[in-house]
Amino acid sequence: MNGGGDVNGLRFDPTKPLDVIALGRLCIDLNANETGRPLEDVVTFTRYLGGSPANIAVGAARLGLKTGFIGKVADDPFGRFIVRYLREAGIDTSGVVTDAPGSVTGLTFTEMKSPEEGRIYMYRENVADLNLAPNEVSEEYLGSTKALLISGTALARSPSREAVFVALDYARRHGAVVVFDLDYRPYTWSSPEETAVYYKLAAEKSDVVIGTREEFDRLERFDPPSRGDDETTARRLFAHRARLVIVKHGKAGSVAYTRNGQRVVGPVFPARVVKPFGAGDAYAAALLYDLLRGWALERCLTYGSAAAAIVISRHSCSDAMPTAEEIEAYIRQVQSGQGAGA
Ligand SMILES: Nc1ncnc2c1ncn2[C@@H]1O[C@H](COP(=O)(O)OP(=O)(O)O)[C@@H](O)[C@H]1O
Ligand SMILES: O=C(O)C[C@@H](O)[C@H](O)C(=O)COP(=O)(O)O
Q: Looking at domain 14-25+52-101+127-333, which CATH architecture does it have?
């Protein structure tokens, strides 16, 4: 584990008992069992834990990180399943609260028409996760972690929005590294203007900002046009608190910039794609694992990319999160020329 040294411009406090606390939505994924057809023709689904920050937390725990969570579940069977699943995955749930009766658990139906063609349909009216209130965020809990991971969708509505900013301030007060995964989901936001304003406010308070090019374009809505130039995007965030900015480009890979001038291009691993979803969550979990261990950026992006290729080759996201051994084995398999087959 990073001994608190300043690696990649990040300093993780080794005295903190938790490695990462994730904050945001805890939902259910219902992934189509019948593939190759539109959702209207799908009869059965498999239920998994879902929600980008939840998936990342599961990925982090599966890699061996001491992981906690701050979130809110509905007082319904899915909420009880979620808390049980987190505990069984070894994730600390002391920061997870149950909402008053009446709200529901967010549902995401995943269509798998083809490896490249699939959509997700999110049902997020009156969801419990956006009812997380600022007074339900514990400063003491945030004082116990090396890193805080926040997910952009938690900024989509109050009081969750305010809870995120309180968590951000607590994390910074106690020296935690703040990782902001933009995680844009159109289904929850009222307007693109709102997304831009709150993404920018949170990104300017974060040490690490991860997003796709499209997500950064949304953040930059009111900035002078960067014309999709990743380096311009990174430089703008370095004018604030950021030390590391990572732009993801799907199967074209990823690129990372550090405040001290590094630019590292992430590799892309071959994948027998089952669904195009889950890549970013796996990428974030494995990247964070390696950042916490103080590895060089090249290796961090390699680990993230390999984990992503593994997860998109499997039916689920959360359940599919790989162990470190699986990632290492896949990297060796590909580097020895044995091709895909995660
Ligand atoms: N089809 C693919 N084949 C191999 N790797 C992929 C593929 N799609 C994504 N990845 C890897 O996963 C990373 C994140 O995927 P991306 O789609 O950019 O993010 P998100 O899932 O958050 O939208 C990419 O940078 C790349 O390394
Ligand atoms: O984030 C959600 O609410 C849905 C996820 O649980 C789902 O697995 C998914 O779409 C992952 O998307 P991605 O990792 O951003 O591709």
A: 3-Layer(aba) Sandwich (3.40)
